[in-house]
Here is the input.
Amino acid sequence: MRKLIIAFTAIGLAAGTAPAHAQEGRGKMFAKFDANADGQLDESEVTALLKARAEKKGQPEIADPKKVKRFIKKADTDGNGTVSQAEMQAAAAKPAAPEGGAAD
Here is the structure.
């Protein structure tokens, strides 16, 4: 789980006090993976995002299907089965559990 949160943070989805142009870039990154433009990332869209990140980082374990499902379950605070940009930002802003912990 920690690697997933780090991956999301690293690609610019974490909330914060970044300048407006950085916030805009985060929205563009989210939109890039929101294939159906519904404002939500479903499992296939989160998987695509993580595969791109895993490839870039050379860490294929980031895109493990079980980790994708765990991340969605944790991030999806409204229970609709998808992750909104706000949910993604909130999940990325939460402290990560230690590697090998219950959340991983």
